[in-house]
Amino acid sequence: MSSAHLDSEVADSAKHPEKRGIEFIAPAERHGTAWALFAVWAAPNVSILSLTMGATLTLVLGLELWQAVLVIIASNLLWILPGIVAASGPSAGTSGSVITRAIYGIRGNRIVIAFYGWFVSGIFLALNWVASTFMGAELLRRLGMGNDTLAKALVTIAVSGITVLVAVYGHGLILRSYSVVTAALLAIFVVVTVFILSKADFGFVQPEPLGGLDLWISLSIGFAILASTPLSYSNSADMARYLPSETRTSRVIAATALGGAVPGVIFLSVGALLGTLVSFDALEIGIDFALMDMLPGWLGVLLVVGVVLNTVALNGMTTYTASMVFQSIGVPIKRIPSAVLIGVLGTIFTFVLAVSTSLIDAVNLMLQFLLIISVPTITIYATDILLRGNRYDSLQLFEQFPSGKYWYRSGYSVAGIVALVAGGLASALFLSTDVWAGPLALLLGGIDLSVPAGMAVSALVYTLLFKKSARKQEVA
Question: How far apart are the C-alpha atoms of 132 and 68, rounded to whole Å?
């Protein structure tokens, strides 16, 4: 490794932009405690999207409240995977987009990360920005702005600009500010929750209760939609990489997993209750708008503020981690210009979605399709950590020549590439959406097993091939 990888340009601080990218973080610069990660992951998940996705379970999929809650709990158990992935950050001392060189090989990793870590990150930015765009534009409309397209453009540009600024300042700002952001978001969404609970009918029963195959279809699709959130966070190592290497792995896993799962379970459940309060016609205007109509005027404004704050928190982290992707694949660009570039990409995607579709349609459809890549990606990452005992050679991760440990065969790891393709194919075959249903999903009558099938296949294939090839090279 060159000295550039070992030396720090600036200390990790909230007071100035973070210049470090994927460079190795020396032991002397490590700091913080694992439990600080709880707020880092809680802030993005105190979200209007949680309310919208929760409402989908009861309003769109027709589940009873208790069925919806079971699906919510089951899907949020998958937060254990981002927790396991986060543990590799302190161990390797670098970005997850570099650590995965050990999984796919130096050249193979460039292909995987270029697509999933950059292009797909832009899509995730858009999915989250579009919520604040819709609601911010609606608030401007109610305040008298007549041009809806202009309102959406102004909100999108303003929110994306603030988000990119958070990403530019980076890890130090995120670590030190997200506890305050989490507290503010909790205050806003707790007030909204109290209002919803005051109107809720806890004895609600669907007019036409589901049974048999129809019930299993709704349960499986609901699980797939909700599971897409924890399964998308294969970037969790980036937020933990500044922790001292001796930090207990169990604490990193617990803080990350609980930070995402606790607010997820709470506010998705509140969303399921919300779905029982609004009519099916609410889908035409959007569940988020229906909620605004239910709330007192002052609380509606406060909710929009919360939505924007949550969007900045979530996308600030996503933009930050995506800004290191170009460096990890060998593009000669600094982290800060890269953050600006991914922000521009996400802004374009956001504006296209905002003027062409509804929020709930955009979210549900995109989240299901992204399972094809997110399911095997995070499953293989977590499996690799378990197989290696979370031990990575930090110096060799930066050795990008045939002499390096992680070069494998011509720069590609057969285990990683084959497992990724096999897992993605399994997810696609079992995926069930309005526009695409895999042949095996059709064989099951429309039941969506894309998540368990993709996880099982990718983990099994990677484990078998790792034991035959990658482990032999590690020993050598």
Answer: 25
Distance in angstroms (rounded) separating the CA atoms of residues 88 and 95: 9
349: closest CA among 89, 36, 127, 62? 127
Q: Is the pLDDT of residue 331 over 90?
A: no
* Residue 225 β-bridge partners: none
C-alpha triplet 300, 306, 309: angle, nearest 5°: 145
What is the pLDDT at residue 106?
Answer: 93
d(CA 243, CA 239): 9
Nearest CA to 102 among 328, 416, 460? 416
Instruction: Say how many CA atoms lie within 13 Å of 369 toward its Cβ.
Output: 13
Contact (Cβ atoms closer than 8 angstroms) between residue 243 and residue 90: yes
Query: Residue 119 has what DSSP assignment?
Result: I
Radius of gyration of the chain from Cα atoms? Answer: 22
May I ask the CATH architecture of the domain 36-370? Orthogonal Bundle (1.10)
- Residue 244 CB-density burial (10 A; 0-12 exposed, 13-18 middle, 19+ buried): middle
Measured distance CA(135)–CA(289) in Å, rounded: 7
Identify residue 8 by its one-letter amino acid code. S
What crossing angle do the helices spanning 212-231 and 65-76 adopt, rounded to 10°?
40
- CB-neighbour burial class of residue 189 (10 A; exposed 0-12, middle 13-18, buried 19+): buried
Greatest alpha-carbon pair distance for the chain in Å reads 70
Q: Do residues 63 and 218 touch, judged by C-beta distance below 8 A?
A: yes
Cβ neighbours of 205 (radius 10 Å): 10
Q: Which of 425, 436, 432, 434 is nearest to 461 (CA)?
A: 425
List, for residues 83-118, the tens digit of each pLDDT value.
Answer: 999 999 999 999 999 999 999 999 999 999 887 776
pTM as predicted: 0.87
Angle at CA of residue 127, ends 383 and 178, nearest 5°: 70
Collapsed DSSP state (helix, strand, coil) of residue 409? strand
Q: 3-state SS string over 204-253? A: CCCCCCCCHHHHHHHHHHHHHHHHHHHHCCCCHHHHHCCCCCCCCHHHHH
Q: What's the start-to-end Cα distance of the chain, in Å? A: 20
pLDDT at 251 over 70: yes
> Which pair of tokens denotes residue 30?
């490590």
DSSP SS3 for 269: helix
Cβ–Cβ under 8 Å, residues 230 and 81: yes
Report d(CA 319, CA 179) in Å as an integer: 19
Convert the pLDDT of each residue in 295-310 to its tens digit. 888 888 888 888 888 8
Residues of the chain with pLDDT > 70, as a percent, come to 89
